[in-house]
Structure formats: C-alpha cells, structure tokens
Design goal:
Helix 1 crosses helix 6, helix 3 runs parallel beside helix 7 and helix 4 crosses helix 5. The chain is an all-alpha fold. The model has no long low-confidence stretch (mean pLDDT 87). The protein contains eight helices and no strands. The two termini are 29 Å apart. The radius of gyration is 19 Å and the shape is globular.
Length: 244
C-alpha cells in the first residue's frame, strides 16, 4: 500500500514530461493503475487458496514490482522517444495532437510506467488475503488487511508528494520506494522456512536494485529528459507541485 501510492505520485510527474496534456495523462494513468490492479487480482483470486506457499509467492511478486517500477528510469532514454515518434507519425502533418492521439499517447506512457508492476501488485493481494483469512474470521481479517493497505497508502501519498519527491527528486524517490518494496519482499523470504538458495536469490535481487540505484548518476533522469533540447539547463527544481 505504501509503495503503490508513492509510485503513483512519482509516475504522475513522469507522465507529465512525456505527454502534452496534464489532465489526460493523470486521468489515464489512474485508470490504467486501477484496471491493472483489478486484472491482476482477478487472475490470482481463484488460485490463491491452491498455491502451496502464497505468502512467499506474494513476496516474490512484491520484489518484482520494485524492480519493474524502477525500470522506466533505466529505459527513459529509449522507450518514451519510441512512443512519441509513433504518435507523431500517426499525427502526420498536424502540429497538435487531436484528442484521440493525446489519449493514445497518455495510454502508452501509462502502460510503460506502471502496467506490469500494477498487474503484479494486484495479483499479490489475494495471495496475502489467503494467508490472513481463516475460517470464522474472514470479515475481520479482510478488514484489517484493507485498513492497513489504505492507511499506508494515505501516508505514502503525503510523504511522497510533499517530502520524498521534493527532497530527493523523481529518480531517487522512485529508487527509494522500489527499494522498500524489494526489501520488504526479501525480509519475508528471509523469515519463511525455505532453502538458503531462495534467501540468497532474494538478497541478490535486493542488492542489485539498491546498489544499482546508488551507482546510477543522481541526475541521470534529468539528463535523459533534456537530451537533444536546444538549451543549456542551469538548475532543475523538483517541487511538490511541478518540476521547474
């Protein structure tokens, strides 16, 4: 819950960079978020009770969401340009995109940023519910699960928007949130019964994201975004409401 809403705050700012219409980009981003989470939950809802180790499976999914949530930073120099070129070819000689093409651009950017991570986040929730819910306490356990998820999401939306993103910038904020997801999943794998090889794999994934994010230049996303622009960037300020 905490990571999901934090991702959404950062993704909404990234989407503004790569789409022209802020209202459309945010609306489509939210729609894709909800649709993919719902679809992911639907895919695993009937399987959750039959999976041998649902909590470990959910932990691996959580770790994967962290890795995939940070992947758009690494792909920022290629895929957004491919999307823009594709939409520009459809627009032809028109200087401005029509409503349909603006919607398509926002949809492609939203899928690039959040499609697969949201599918996995949705798929993990029925698995966690399968562990939490027992006969006779289904209502109470489900209520606690959703309450924890909602409270964490509210807290994250405040901290990500007003503290983490202005303090660390988009790239580091996304890295921090992704790192929390990976570390949470790795911690679950570490305490569950299982082989040392499984724990080592979880530790390797966590270390890859954490050290990879530290080794990546802190201004990498900014340099990629402004690459090719006929201007010299003096200062970039990533505040609570906009990037200047």
């Amino acid at each position: 819950g905490f990571c999901a809403m934090g991702y959404e705050v950062v993704w909404s700012r990234l989407a503004r960079h790569w789409t022209g219409d802020r209202v459309t980009s945010f609306s489509v981003l939210l729609a894709v978020f909800l649709a993919c989470v719902a679809l992911g939950a639907r895919l695993t809802a009937r399987l959750a009770d039959r999976i041998r180790d649902p909590l470990a499976t959910a932990a691996w999914m959580l770790m994967a969401t962290g890795l995939l949530a940070f992947a758009p930073v690494l792909l920022a120099g290629s895929l957004p340009a491919v999307i823009a070129d594709f939409v520009a070819r459809l627009a032809g000689d028109h200087a401005r995109l029509g409503p349909g093409l603006a919607l398509l651009s926002a949809l492609l950017v939203a899928l690039f940023l959040e499609g697969v991570p949201c599918l996995l986040m949705g798929a993990g929730l029925p698995l966690v519910a399968a562990v939490a819910v027992r006969e006779g306490n289904a209502g109470q356990a489900t209520g606690r699960l959703y309450a924890a998820n909602t409270v964490a999401g509210v807290l994250s939306s405040i901290l990500a928007g007003f503290v983490i993103m202005p303090l660390l910038g988009l790239q580091r904020a996304l890295w921090l949130l992704a790192g929390l997801a990976v570390l949470a999943g790795a911690a679950v794998i570490a305490v569950l019964p299982g082989s040392g090889r499984r724990r080592a794999a979880a530790g390797l994934l966590a270390g890859t994201l954490l050290f990879g994010g530290l080794l990546l230049p802190g201004d990498y996303l900014r340099r990629v975004y402004f690459a090719g622009a006929n201007l010299r960037v003096g200062t970039v300020r990533e505040g609570a409401t906009t990037t200047a």
